[in-house]
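Fold this sequence, please.
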Amino acid sequence: MAARFGLADVREAINDVLHGPEDAEESPEEQASQPPLIGGTQAERPAPPKTKAKRLYPESVTCSYAGGTFDVSHRGVFFIGTDKDGNEQPPRWICSPLSVVAKTRDAKSGEWGRLLEWHDDDRVRHQWAMPLELLQSDGTDMRRELARMGLSIAPGKAQRDLLASYVQVWPVENRARCVERLGWHGSVYVTPSESIGQQDEIVVFQNAHAIDPALSSAGTLDDWRATVAQPAAGNSRLVFALSAAFAGPLAEVAGEDSGGFHLRGGSSSGKTTALKVAASVWGNPSNYPRLWRATANGLEGLAALHNDCLLILDELSQIDPKEAGEAAYLLANGQGKARASRTGAARQSARWRLLFLSAGEESLTALMARAGRKVNAGQEIRLADIDADAGAGMGAFEVLHDQPSPAALALAIKDAAIRNHGTAGVAWLRSIVTNRATLPDIIEEGIKGFINDAVADQAAGQVLRVARRFALVAVAGELATFYGITGWTAGEAITAAHKCFAAWLDAFGGVGNREERNILAQVRAFFEAHGASRFEDIHATGDQRIINRAGFYRTGVSGDREYLVLPEAFKRELCQGNDIKTVTAELLKAGWLAPGEGSRTTQKPRIPGLGTTRCYVLTGRMWEGE
C-alpha cells in the first residue's frame, strides 16, 4: 500500500529516529518509487550529495547545512542540527517528501527558481517551478502554494525557515528553462503541468504573478466525445464554439492575429451553453469561463494566462460601457501596457496571441451606445458579433438529438461537460505538436478554400480579415475531427463556420469597409434630417427665412436636387468624428460629391446675394439604392 504522509507518519518517523526503526529494510514500494516527472518525460534524479552526516534511514539522501544536515527520505524532509557544543540534536520534521529536481532560469539567465516535485496524500504527483523571488520575504507565498497543492508542512517558525533554506541550498545539477508564458515556445507547447513536445532542454512554466490557470481534466476522451462533442453536431453555434476552442493554439502556427467572437442573444438562448461546451475542451466549464467584469489590468492577466489558447468571457454587459471598446482592442492587439518595475526600470509588457469567445445579451455596438460612445470598425472586426439564434426556432439549437427540448439538450451537455472535460485539449495538443511541421501549409490551404467559398471577390479588407479568423476556426474543427477527437463527420466544422460567418456578415452590413459605410450613412442621415430646413433655394427671392443655414440647393443638370454645402457646415457636421480628406475621398468614390476644377473637392458657384462662394456640391446619387 502506498504510504500517506500524515501526523501518524511524522510521529512514527521521529520514534524511529529516537529508538531505531523496527525494519530498516526498504519496502518493495519504496524500491520501486519512480523518478520525477518533468514535462511529461522521466528524468534522472540528481546524484545524492556526498556527505559524512548520519542518515536517518538507509535510503536517505543528505546535505550539510549550517553545521547540521538535511535528511530526505520517504518519511519526509528532516533537519538534524547541533547545539553549541557540537552535539547532535533530535531531528526536526520540516515537510512531507519534497524533491528539488532542477534549477530553473529563463533564456536570459534571469528569473531563477527551483523545480520542485512531490506527491499529495492521494499519491497525485505535483510539479511546480518556484521563482526564488518568493523567498525574499518570509517564504509565506511559497509555503501557501505548496500547501495548496497538498504538501504537508510543519507549523513552527523554525521549521518554516528551514524549508526555505532547504529549497535554496539543496545541491542540484539539473537545469531547466523557465518561461513566464504558457503556449508555444518553439516546437514545445507549455501548459501549467506539462511541456508537450519536450526536446533536449527541459521547459517549465514559472510565473510568480500568474492567476491560477483553469486548465484541468476529468473523465475520458471517449466519454467527452460521446456526451459533449457528438450531441453538439448539427448545431452550428455549438460546433463553432467547440472548433474555436481548438483554434486557439493554431493562431501562432498559422501566423494569425488575435481576435474574438461574440455570441449575442437573449437569456435562455443557448449562448452560455455554447461557452461551456467550448470550455470543456480545456477545463471544467464551471470555472474555465471568466467574466468581462474586470479592470484593464485584470484582462491583461487573463489574456496572458490564455496565450495560444482560448479565453472565454461571459456577460459582456457587466463591463463598463465606457471601457468596452478599449477592452476589445486590448485583447485583440496582444500586448499590455508598459509598466515600471519596483526599481523604476522598464518592465517588459505582457504579450499574448489568442482567440476569445464572448457572450452577452447585446452587441459591443449597443453596449457602447448606452454610454454615448461610438464604436469604430476596428473594434467591431476585433470582436465579431454573431447572432446566437441559429434560425431554427430553438435559439442556438438546430438539432435536439432525441432530447425533448432545447433546454433538456443544454442541460444534458452541460452536465456531461462537468463530468468529462480537459481530455480533448490534451489530445489536441499532442496531435498538433506531433504534426506541427506540416500544419502551416494545411491551415493556409484550408483558409483559402473557406474564403473562396464564403467571401465575394469585391469584399473589403476588413471583411477578409474577419473571414480568415472564421476560416481558422473551421480548419481547427476539421483537423480535430481528422485526429479522431470530435467524432464528427468531415465537413461539420466548415458548415458551422459558414453559417456563423454569414450571420456576422449580415450584422456587419455587407462586404464593404465599415468606415466607408458609416461615412456615407452619416452624410445621408444629415440630409434626411435637415434637407428641407437648413438649405435655402439658390434662386430664392429673399423672403425665405432659414435658421442655422448649412447651404443652398438647386436643380442639377439631370433634374435631381443638388445641395451646396458651405465649408464650415461640411467640416463641422457632415464630417463629425471623421477626417475631412477621408470623407471627401469616400464621397467622390461613391459619386455623391461633384468634383471641382483640377483636383479640388469644392466648386465656386455664383450665389445671389453672396457672389462666388466655395461649396461642396452633393448630388442626387446619395439617394440611389435606398
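The mean pLDDT is 86. The first helix runs from residue 7 to 19.
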